[in-house]
Every structure is written in C-alpha cells, then in structure tokens.
Amino acid sequence: MPIAVPKSAKPGRLSKFSRALFDRVVSAIRDGEPTATAIEKQGIDHSTFYRHLQRQPELVPELQAAQLERDRVRNASRIEDAEQELKRRGIDGWTEPVFDAKGQMCGERRRYSDACLIFFLKAHKPELYHDQPTTVVATQVNITPEREKDIMREWRSRLGATESPAAPPAS
Question: CA–CA separation, 144 vs 148, rounded Å?
Fold first, then answer.
C-alpha cells in the first residue's frame, strides 16, 4: 500500500526563481539589455520566468516599467538621428551622379527632399507650419442648354473667336 505524503513534504526541485533574481533581471533590462537576454544571463528559462510572473502578478508592472524605461532611452537617440537625417535631406541635400547619353558620368547635381523639409518645418515651427483644416464649399450649378450656348458665345467673343454669320439658305 502506498504511503501518503503531505503536499508540503513532497520531494521536488527547488525553484531558481526568487525576488533577488527578478530584481537582477529588471536591473539588466533598465541597463539596456533585451528582456530575453537578461533572463538567460540569470540562468533561468523564459518559460519558468514567465510562469512565476503569472503566479506573482504584482511583479508584472515593475517589469513593464523597466522595459518602457529601456525603450525610451533607446529610442531617444534614434529619434535624434532621424531628426538629423531630416535636416540633412531637406536643407543640406545630397549629390547624385549625372550621366551622359553614352552612360559616362559627366557631373553631379544636388538633390533635396521637399517632404523632409516640410516635416522639419512642422516640427520646429508648428505655430507657422501646422496643418490647418480646410473647408470645402460644394455648390451646385444647373445650366440649361440655352444658357450653355449663351455662355459659350460670350467666352468665344472674349477670346476673339467670334462666330461668322451663318450663310443664308439657297433658294
């Protein structure tokens, strides 16, 4: 007959997950590491880490805050680089080679991006270059065939293309 063992005394592996491990993962994420790499460096499997997060949902907001902080820092330099590229393309421009009919390079020309210049101005002078809503007024005009002939006659006379008088019918 099997021996009844209470649940708490059940033999099994001890979990590697602890609050200290979680804090080390969060610290690594805040320092700029990807989440997966930070978890792996602590010697724990992803599924184990996330299973423990499911059991302790109070830890999830702290992890998410660390990820947002890391991404904000990462993206700040990317946004600055993008703004510099907007300025370069819109204001400074770039050179492109010019080829003759024989396919030989005969010079260079400077090119600029109007779209980049527009975005640059909207970002740096929004009070002047912001998008303004436009109002479209729809009007409906009904022109009768007689009125159309009068309008066409008037425009032909304005343009100097007057109609010659019709020849009298032959009798």
Answer: 6
This model's pTM is above 0.70: no
Distance CA 108, CA 98 (A): 5
Distance (Å, rounded) from C-alpha 171 to C-alpha 162? 27
Q: Which residues pair with 95 in a beta bridge?
A: 110
Q: Which domains does the chain have, with CATH numbers?
A: 16-129 (1.10.10)
Mean pLDDT, each 10-residue run in order, the chain (171 residues): 50 75 92 91 89 91 92 84 89 93 93 90 86 77 87 88 59 54
Give dist(CA 93, CA 108) in Å, integer: 12
